[in-house]
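fold-stage: in
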Amino acid sequence: MSPSDSLLHRQVPLLDTLGIEPIEAHKGVARLRMTVDERHLRTLGMLHGGVTATLLDTALGYAVTSLAAEGFHAVTAQLNVNFTRPVSRGEVLEATGLVLHSGSQTAVASGEVRNADGKLIATATGTFLYLRLS
C-alpha cells in the first residue's frame, strides 16, 4: 500500500462520526466529500460552521500530510475559515486542500468547499507543524 493509500484508509473516528469520506490525498492535494444530514445541522436547518471548519481542516491536513517526511505527521497550528453561503440538509459537499508551502518544520495550505453545483461554500488557510511520530 502506498503512503497516499494508507492516508486515505487510516481510521479517524471523527470522520466516521461525521460521514466525511477522503477521496484523494497525494502530492500536496487532497479532496474529501460529505453529504449533509440531520447530525450536521444547527438551528434554522443550516450546516453548523464547526462541521464546515472540520471538513476544511481535514482537507488541508491530508494535503500537508501527503508531503510529510517518513516518520512525521502534520498537526494544525492555525486555521482561518471564511464562510460564504449557508448549506442545507441533503447537499453534497466537496472540500479541496492544496499545499502552498512545505518546509522541514511547517507547511501552509489553502482550501475550499463547494456544493454539487460548484457554488463556493467556504474557504480556508492553515499553518501546520510537522511532528515526529513516536
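fold-stage: in (second)
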Amino acid sequence: MDAQELAIKDYLIAQIDNGTYATTEPLPSDYQLVEQFGVPRMKVRNVYALLEQLGYIYARKGIGRFICAKKQLLDMVLSGDVSFSEKMKAQAKQYYSVVKRAEVVRHEHAIFQKSYVTAQNLYLVERLRFVDEVPAALHRSYILLEHVPEVQERERVLSSIHSFYRELGIEQFHSTFSKLDILVPDEEIRHLLQSQLLVPIMKLESDNWDSATNRQLEYTEIFYRTDRFQFQF
C-alpha cells in the first residue's frame, strides 16, 4: 500500500469511526474518491478491498459499499480463575461450546516444541466458543494425562473443562505464566472462527494449576477474535 492509498484508508476509517456515514447509506463511490484524492481508480478499489477484509465494510452488488454495523464488544478479563463459559454467560444472550477434537496428542505435535512444555503425555480438548450464534474464540486445553487421567473417560463433559475439574473436586485454579501474541490467522483458525482475512487474532498461552495441591492440570492456547472482545488485564 503506497502513500496515496494510505491517505485514502486513513480518511475513510476516520470518517467511519466519527460516525459520518450511517449504516443505511452507501460510502463514497470510486469516482468520488478518485476526484477527491486525484488518484487512479485502482488505488481506491485497493483501499475498499482492504477495508472489507478488515471487517469495516461490505459490498452490495449494484448498490454500493456500506459500513458494517458495530458489534457490542464483550469484556474479557484475562484470568484463569473464572471459566470462559461463566464470563460469557454473564454477558451474552446466548452462549454455547462445541467440542471439535478430543484426542491423545501425538509426540510430533508442535506443542512439545514449546519451551514451557515438560509433560510427555497430553490429551487435547479443542472447543469452539459461540457467542450469540457467532464463533468468538477457539480454546485448546492440553491436559496432563499424568495428573488427570480421567479426561479420557469423560468426553461427555468436556465442553466445560472447569466444570469437569470441579466434578473431580478441584475448585481453585491459578496460572504461573501468560504469553500474548497478535496474529494474522492462518486458514484453519480463520475458517473455524469465520473471521475476515485481516482481522487480527489474539492468542493467549498459559498454564492451569490446582491451587490446593499445586498440581499442574493443563497447558492452554486460546485464540480470540479481536473484533468480538475488549480485553482487561
